[in-house]
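BACKBONE STRUCTURE TOKENS:
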Amino acid sequence: MCNPLSVQFNHLLIFANDKYESASFLTSILGLPEPIPAGFFLAVEMENNVILHFGEPKIPILSQHYAFLVSDAVFDASLERLKARNIPFWADPRQQRLGEINDENNGRGFYFFDPSGHGLELITHPYIWE
């Protein structure tokens, strides 16, 4: 029988048109340490021991969605960084509420895009599915 704590999510490969641009964009918006080289990839370390590896596949990439659960302080600082750089953000994934944040799921959230076209989402409270 397997111990329930013996399986943890460790890392994820995020395809990018320019791994340096995408990884640095994410760390600059979230206020994380600069990405570090990891073989062919650039690694962004998250506080929960998950690593995001940014790589360039040299083929067209499809847009993906990545959501980050952040503290209120990180949320506020990230939103201010986006505003200072004139990066559009929306309260909804259908991009109908430009320049707004949402207050869903007992928290706050918003959506924006990285340089490779991936949809990023910041939320301050996990989604509650009923």
Observations:
- The mean pLDDT is 94.
- The first strand starts at residue 11 and ends at 15.
- The radius of gyration is 15 Å.
